[in-house]
Design brief:
This protein has 110 residues and is mostly helical. The chain has a domain at 25-87: Orthogonal Bundle (434 Repressor (Amino-terminal Domain)). It is built from 5 helices and no strands. The protein is flat, with a radius of gyration of 19 Å.
Amino acid sequence: MTTKAKNTVKAAKSSGNVFADLGLPRPEQELLKARLTLEIYRLIRKRDLTQAEAGKVLGIKQPHVSALMRNRAGSFSVERLMKFLTALGQDVEISVKPARGRQGEVSLVA
């Protein structure tokens, strides 16, 4: 009879930002880009656009649309992602208000 060793999985409470939890640089910006990219993905899927059609709407080549659809927005700035949203017929609103704590945060309300 053989006995298996128990594998212990350690878990840590999330900060709410996976990019910060992973120790990546500029985690707030990366989270915002991920959320903007998700909205672009949803709009393209909702409209049932092919990647080539979406590329024409966004003014980019199909391989770049493919990267967006796989949540690979690393090469696009937040500003460019917002321009993609406006090209897809969305209004993008930026709101500035006092922070609850010492340091503010960036968020996306969709």
